[in-house]
Amino acid sequence: FHIPLGLDLKAFLRQPLKEPKTHGPLVFACLGSGIERKNHKMTIEAFAKALGNNENAHLFINCRWSEPEVRDEIIAEINRHRCNNIHYTEICLKQDAYLKFFQSVD
């Protein structure tokens, strides 16, 4: 499963709006292919600069597929900033798992 540029949003739009979070960590996410134009490095830099290694904020980066050199760059950038709250995975999520992942993000 992958989300093409033309996206059927019906399942996403049927979900209720989330209530504002009053406790627990803020969860940010970046989902997409691991290709240069997605600029994961800038996302990691911005998150690290703004929130550092704050245990009350997490960034989850999931690439359904990555070019090997981009994957290496993402991992190196996470390690360079020494942020234990930036998490990288490379999993092609099925539609139901993708929706569930979106529901976990603030």
Characterise the protein shown here.
The model has no long low-confidence stretch (mean pLDDT 90). The chain is of the alpha/beta class. A three-stranded parallel sheet has the order 1-2-3, covered by helices on one side. 37% of the residues lie in helices and 22% in strands. Helix 3 links the parallel strand 2 and strand 3. It is flat. It has four helices and three strands, in the order αβαβαβα.
Walk me through the topology.
Layout: H1 10-13, E1 26-34, H2 40-51, E2 57-66, H3 68-81, E3 86-89, H4 95-103
Parallel strand pairs: 1-2, 2-3
Helix pairs in contact: 2-3
- Main-sheet strand order equals 1-2-3
As a whole number of angstroms, the C-alpha radius of gyration is 14 Å
- The string of secondary-structure elements, in order, is HEHEHEH
Low-confidence stretches: none
Shape: flat
**Average pLDDT over all residues:** 90
Total strand count, please? Answer: 3
Largest sheet: 3 strands, parallel
**Amount of beta strand:** 15-25%
The percentage helix is 25-40%
SSE-based structural type: alpha/beta
Span of the ends, CA to CA? 23 Å
**Number of distinct helices:** 4
Q: What key attributes describe this structure?
A:
three-stranded parallel sheet, single chain, 4 helices, 106 residues, alpha/beta
Quick structural gist:
The protein is α/β, with parallel strands linked by helices and 106 residues long. It has helices at residues 10-13, 40-51, 68-81, 95-103, and strands at 26-34, 57-66, 86-89.
